[in-house]
Structures are given as C-alpha cells and as structure tokens.
C-alpha cells in the first residue's frame, strides 16, 4: 500500500503523522511511505532521516493525496486538504467531527473512508490513540494555566505554588480521565491546591486510591462545580463523552461570580469545549478575556511540544497503521472491533452514532459499512 503523510497545515501545528521509525516499519512490511518534503522538520525529523528509513520524499501535498491509498496525519484535514481526498481513499487521523459540520460534510462529499484516532477503543474501556495526546495536553494544561495567570497575560497574578506564608493557587480540574489526571498530577507537583471533579464513581475511587494524598476529588454535580469554580484561580476543562460534543459545565453567567483574572483552560475544546464562553484559539494567539476571566482554548495543545507528541502519537498509531496497510481497512476492522469503533465516515455515510446525534444526521452502522 502507498501510505502518504503530508505536512500538517493547521496554524502552529508542528507534529507529523509518521515518524521515520514508522516509515521504516511500513517499508519493512512491503509498503511505500510517501512523506512530504519537510513534513518532519517541526518535530526534529529531517528528509534524510526518512530517506534513511526507506521513505520517498514527495514535493507537494497535492502529489501525496493523488498517489496515496491511505493518508496518515495528525490533525483533522483542513478545507484545502479535504478537496484533495477522493472516493476509496483511506484517511487515518484525528477528526473531532461532532462540533464540525463543515468538515463532516466535506468528508461525506469526498467519498473517502475516514477512521478517527479519537474514537478507536481498547478492551480496558480506554481510547488508545487519544490517550498519548491527552497525557501531553494534560501535562501542558497547568503549565499554560500558570502562564495565563501571570499579570502581564491578563491573569490574577497568582503563583501556582504560592510561597511560604502565601497560599498556593486553587486549581479545579473538571473530568478526571487521562487529561484530568495528568493535569492534576502536574498542578499538584507545582504546589497548587488541586481538586478533581468527575461523575464516574469508579474513577473517583481510583483517583482516591492512587492520588489521595496528592490532590482531592469530588463528585461532579452542577452545585459542586459552581462552588469550586467561584473559589478557583485556575479551572481546567477535561471532560469527554467519546465522540460527542462536550457538555457545557460553566455558563457565561457564572464567570461574573469568579475571581477577576482567574483562568480557564479548556482542553475539551476539540470536542466543542466545556465552558459556554469557549472558542477555539491557536498557539499564535492562545488567550482571550470574557467578563474578566482569561480563557485558553487551543485545540491542538500537543503541537506545542511537537517532538514529544509526535513520538508518543507514533508509538500508539503504528500497530493500527500497519494493520490497515497490511490487511486493508475492511479486513483490519473486521478483525478488530476496537479499530471498527474508529470508523466515522465511509463512502458518503456517517458511521459514528455520537457524531450523527450531535449534527442531526443519519448514521449507517459500522457493521453494515463493512459490507457496503
Ligand atoms: N486541546 C487539545 O489539544 C487536546 C484535547 N483533548 C481532549 O481532552 C478531552 C478529555 O480527554 P481524555 O482525558 O482523554 O478523556 P477521558 O475519557 O480519559 O476522560 C474524560 C473524563 O470526563 C469525565 N466526565 C464526563 N462528563 C463529565 C461531567 N459532566 N463532569 C465531570 N466529569 C465528566 C468522564 O467520567 C471521564 O473520566 C477530550 O475532549 C479530548 O479530545 C485531548 C488531547 C489534546
Ligand atoms: C487530540 C487532539 O486533537 C490533538 O492532539 O490535537
Ligand atoms: Mg485537538
């Protein structure tokens, strides 16, 4: 199979869909890895690194999209890229379709088959292709939150760890999954006073067992959230209902009850955001203010640490990419129901329930899509 990896074109996105190691594995399995010239530079991989791994360097994205059977990327295809997708072509990348009608329509119109990293599952109830980037974004969230809290950035001028004689920042993390746990660990490590909210009791029990001495946890109700948010210096949004649009857990009216200069970091922004006032921002212009509260809503946070992120994502995607290339998407998905859960679009039809619900569109079951 010809596996194409174009340069990411989302603003300030420096990750790349295939590492030289992944290109080498693909080559060893008899596939051809087509890498766009310079695609790896942002993550510290040169064209020579890819050539040494057996990949072919291709000058333009247009040529990659024209030649490849499967496109492997990081971010959802941008409008220009969507025009280059074609019927029968396989797309393997993050999609986040629920809050993105324009992208969904373009993918349907293209006739391509699209497998979304973020909805592939594993047999422990996890999301193995989202997890590595959630680990990264979770660990980054207190770092960017601390920066947002600095006075020159519009924040309250509160130091995460405080100093002897002055209390640390109060940090509230809404959602105690992968993002939330990593965020809470780092925020606590910076010396902040951290509380994690989740609505899953088993998850809260786990957090209590493992991190009971490091950070607090509380059951997530509207009342508990409102009370904690009023007192918070930094709130990190980290909820997820897989594939679905994020629930709005802080309303605009609540902002006026918050401390002036408090910061909201909405990691769930890629699923539409979990604060009413969230709108996606970029690394070039990451923060904005609403009613005296600073918002950080970058939808591709891991791009800021492109090398770490590319390696972590590549480790997770490699076995799935090889299966797709070795077997073709139908057989690979037939053999692995977890990979089939990644199928979001096939031949002009949506195949993921939560996306259909979010957008009010009809859905073909993935099992039927396998036969279509
Ligand atoms: N902005 C970015 O660059 C990135 C964003 N993300 C996003 O971060 C979000 C979280 O991802 P993960 O931590 O991997 O998901 P996860 O599935 O590991 O954790 C989500 C947690 O939210 C909890 N939850 C759901 N509804 C809730 C509610 N109403 N109140 C409190 N908790 C609730 C669930 O019980 C679960 O424990 C996702 O939207 C993901 O796409 C992930 C990586 C990068
Ligand atoms: C998960 C995701 O959207 C990202 O890593 O950018
Ligand atoms: Mg994202």
TrEMBL record:
NAD(+) binds at residues 134, 198, 203, 220, 239-240, 267-270, 298-301. Keywords: NAD, Nucleotide-binding, Oxidoreductase. It is an enzyme of class 1 (oxidoreductase). It comes from the Bacteria. Substrate binds at residues 15, 75. Residues 149-297 form the Alanine dehydrogenase/pyridine nucleotide transhydrogenase NAD(H)-binding domain. The active site is at 96 (proton donor/acceptor), 270 (proton donor/acceptor). It catalyses: L-alanine + NAD(+) + H2O = pyruvate + NH4(+) + NADH + H(+). GO terms for cellular component: plasma membrane. SUPFAM superfamilies: Formate/glycerate dehydrogenase catalytic domain-like (SSF52283), NAD(P)-binding Rossmann-fold domains (SSF51735). Residues 4-137 form the Alanine dehydrogenase/pyridine nucleotide transhydrogenase N-terminal domain. PROSITE patterns: ALADH_PNT_2 (PS00837). Its EC number is 1.4.1.1. CDD domains: L-AlaDH (cd05305). NCBIfam families: alaDH. Belongs to the AlaDH/PNT family. This is Alanine dehydrogenase. It comes from Shimia litoralis. The lineage of its organism: Bacteria, Pseudomonadati, Pseudomonadota, Alphaproteobacteria, Rhodobacterales. The gene is ald.
């Amino acid at each position: 199979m010809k596996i194409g990896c174009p340069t990411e074109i989302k603003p300030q996105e420096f990750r790349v869909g295939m590492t030289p190691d992944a290109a080498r594995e693909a080559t060893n399995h008899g596939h051809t890895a087509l890498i766009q010239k310079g695609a790896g530079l942002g993550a510290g991989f040169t064209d020579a690194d890819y050539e040494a791994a057996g990949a072919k360097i291709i000058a333009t994205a247009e040529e990659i999209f024209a030649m490849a059977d499967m496109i492997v990327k990081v971010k959802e295809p941008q409008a220009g890229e969507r025009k280059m997708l074609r019927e029968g072509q396989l797309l393997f990348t993050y999609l986040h379709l629920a809050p993105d009608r324009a992208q969904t329509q373009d993918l349907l119109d293209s006739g391509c088959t699209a497998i979304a990293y973020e909805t592939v599952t594993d047999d422990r109830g996890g999301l193995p292709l989202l997890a590595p980037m959630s680990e990264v974004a979770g660990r980054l969230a207190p770092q960017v939150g601390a920066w947002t809290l600095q006075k020159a950035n519009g924040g309250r001028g509160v130091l995460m760890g405080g100093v002897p004689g002055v209390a640390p920042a109060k940090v509230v993390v809404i959602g105690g999954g992968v993002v939330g746990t990593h965020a809470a660990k780092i925020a606590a490590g910076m010396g902040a006073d951290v509380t994690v909210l989740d609505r899953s009791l088993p998850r809260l029990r786990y957090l209590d067992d493992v991190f009971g001495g490091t950070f607090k946890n509380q059951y997530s109700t509207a009342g508990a959230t409102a009370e904690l948010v009023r007192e918070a210096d930094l709130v990190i949004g980290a909820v997820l209902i897989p594939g679905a649009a994020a629930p709005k857990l802080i309303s605009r009216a609540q902002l006026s009850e918050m401390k002036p200069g408090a910061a909201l970091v909405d990691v769930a922004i890629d699923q539409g955001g979990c604060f009413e006032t969230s709108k996606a921002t970029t690394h070039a212009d990451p923060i904005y203010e609403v009613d005296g509260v600073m918002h950080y809503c970058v939808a591709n946070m891991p791009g800021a640490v492109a090398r770490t992120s590319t390696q972590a994502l590549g480790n997770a995607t490699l076995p799935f990419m090889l299966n797709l290339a070795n077997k073709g998407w139908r057989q690979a998905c037939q053999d692995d129901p977890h990979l089939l859960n990644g199928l979001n679009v096939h031949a002009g039809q949506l195949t993921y329930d939560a996306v259909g619900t979010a957008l009010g569109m009809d859905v073909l079951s993935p099992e039927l899509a396998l036969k279509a």
